[in-house]
Design a protein that fits this description.
alpha+beta, 5 strands, 5-stranded mixed sheet, 7 helices, Nonspecific Lipid-transfer Protein, Chain A
């Protein structure tokens, strides 16, 4: 049972809002786009998939990349599998991704070093995630450090 998400639809609702904000952000989105990779996130509890395409031209105007909620036909360059709750805490800046892999909380494959290079780029999004939760009326999902 997830600590933060009622179901897959709830997770997609939050990540849709969050990713739109991240990928329209002049600083974060523009720097992410330079990575030129496709990343697949596989979540458990609830089960979900999110693909972020930073390789192909964005499908929507104003975005620096595209994202897909649910399975899609794009072949990822790198993938990461973790619990949805772990991801939720990561976007609050609480979970250390290197330690999580070492402890087996996260499994990854493909061009992992390319994804690791994105860590400093996405760090400003740690401040954004609690803000979007508040904007969406999900103050109860904000993790207090």
């Amino acid at each position: 049972m997830s600590e933060y998400y009622r179901d897959t639809a709830h997770l997609y609702e939050i990540y849709d809002y969050f990713l739109k904000r991240v990928l329209t952000d002049e600083k974060i989105g523009q720097k992410m786009m330079k990575a030129g990779i496709i990343i697949k996130f596989i979540y458990t509890d609830p089960d979900a998939e999110i693909v972020i395409d930073l390789k192909n031209p964005p499908k929507d105007a104003g975005l620096y990349g595209s994202y897909y909620l649910g399975p899609c036909d794009l072949k990822e360059d790198v993938w990461s599998k973790q619990s949805a709750d772990h991801s939720h805490r990561f976007w609050h800046g609480i979970e250390n991704p290197i330690a999580a892999v070492a402890k087996g909380k996260v499994t990854q494959g493909g061009k992992v070093t390319a994804m690791l290079k994105l860590l400093p780029v996405v760090k400003p999004a740690f401040r954004l995630f609690p803000v979007i939760l508040e904007e969406m009326g999900y103050d109860n999902l904000i993790v207090k450090k």
